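Supplementary Text 2. Reproducibility record for the structural model of the 682-residue chain.

All settings were left at their defaults, and a single model was retained for analysis rather than an ensemble. We include the record here because the model underlies the residue-level annotations in Supplementary Table 4.
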Amino acid sequence: INVVVGANGAGKSNFFHGIRFVLNDAFTNMRAEERQQLLHEGAGHAVPQAYVEVVFDNTDGRFPVDRDEVRLRRTIGRNKDEYHLDRRHINKNEVSNLLESAGFSRANPYYIVQQGKIMAMSTMRDSERLELLKEIGGTRVYEERRRDSLKLMHDTESRRSQIEELLVSIDDKLTELDADRKELAEYQDLDRERRALEFALSDRELVNVRKQLEEAEAEGRRVREAAERARAAASGGAGDAGTAEALDLELQQASVERDAAQIALDKSKARHSMLTSKMAAAEADVADLELKVSRGAASAEQAQRRLQGPLAEQIRIAEERLAQTRRELDNTQAALAATKTQLDGAEARQQELLRKQGGQKQFSSQADRDKFLRSEIASLQAVIGDEERRQAEAAEKEQEMQAKLVELGKAKERQSQAASASEATVLQIEGSLAQLRGARDAASNRRKEAWRAEQDAAESMARLLEEQRKRRQVLDSAIPRDVSRGLHALAQGVASQPALQGRVHGRLVDLIDCPPQLDLAVEVTAGNQLFHVVVDSADVALRCTELLQRAKAGRVTFMPLDTLHPTAANIPTEFGSDVVPLARKVRHDPKFEKAVSQVFGRTALCRTMDVAIQAARGNDVDCVTIDGDQVSKRGAMTGGFHEGRVLRLEALRALKKVDLELAAAQSARAAAAEEAARGEGQ
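Retained model, structure tokens:
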């Protein structure tokens, strides 16, 4: 610690202000008036400009400059504010980077402690002192980054929750749509079943009506036979004149009864016509069902399964209605039979009355009676002929209906077969659907896992990129500014010229390696030579120099392998393993042996400082210890404590490790993205 003491007015504050003025710690972003006020106003002419220059001892290599002394000057005037490093003009950013590399960090403003600060620190409360220690230690920046990271995690969690809610709403909507689809399919199946039941009921009613028609025809035949018998009896009988009026009344009553029976018969025929039309409609429905069964075979199995459910109730209601219809039909048939019986009796009485009446006053002679009977017989024969024709037509219609019934039976059998085939198809489809759903769920799970892996890889990449950026900054801060610019320009130029690729091998620090405990010894020995570029020949070095000149981007020192001729060092052997050649500890490719020997060949690695002093004395060799203490062959010794020194080899090794982790994270993210895309394709 350096301490400046003195009486009041001795200039301590001015001294501190001058140092802070150069180190850019104070007096930053001054206006022209403020700069004018800093200039001395004494007797004589006004001073146009002034400067403060600080000379730093750089024997320990704290500044990345190849000189033992570093002069930093700041010059101000009314219209200028400039910085010079060893009389070379630099800007404010370069000054900040230079001071950061030497340990003058803006995050720690306490490398200069002003008057009164010690007293203020001693009277601070514990909480204030803790904040001060955090500020000095530079941990505040990590707390800010931690807050930023927590905020980013919170935002990510919020977006994740929103995405999950959106997925849940989509699943609910899909479930609702699937339920609507099932209800529609169920409605279509029940509608088909309703129409099939109506057809079955119509078919049963048609069969019953046919039976009724046959019975009615049989009754008609019996009536005709009775009429013929009545006519035959009328030909040989005689009547009583006293009963003519009574017979007329009975004849009128029989006519009324016959008309009523005829009306009932007409109603039965009308019902038969209605049932026939229903049968035609049922046949049309059957054709429609056959078409729909061929198209919708997949729903047959569902319809059969539902026959035991809500459809069973409908079948029960339909059967009750059918039983009621049958009862009504039986009642109608009984009424028809009773009506026919009354008609037969009425006709018999009518014939008897006519016979009696004809015998009394219709015929005046037997010839008139025979003539009347012959005409009646002729008319009855005509009626019988008409009835026979109607019976023939009815028989033809009956045959047609029987043929249609056979066709309907075949259609029903085909429907049953189609339903069986549809049931097997439905079972097969359901099995395939279950397999596809399982595959879909598995693919969805794999896709989700791939998404999570991709997100984890992306977060890891972001973290590694940030760490890579920091490592590069640390390494760049340890390299002189012009050298860093030259190296970047050289890398871009070599990448654009294939003729130089493979002939420019890169920086020496990238071509060597050593045990971590020897980093300090290797670095103090090589210094900025670590960033010399190894090339195949002087011609390649010349072409690279031309590239830098055209780009006007910094300076680089080249090590052409064809022009390097390192001399062997006289490493003393009397010290045994306490003194070994440093080049032997540096791992490298054999083709770079000249470059390694050029830098490390004349330096010996010694166990202690005492051994280094003895080894350097009387031998043409420089010595260095593991702690970085150096003993020159000319007798100069350099050593001490290295506080806060950034080891470039260690920084480069950490950067390479981060690069490898970043490459692995990129590969993992690409694999996860490919897996997610494959899951979406499935």
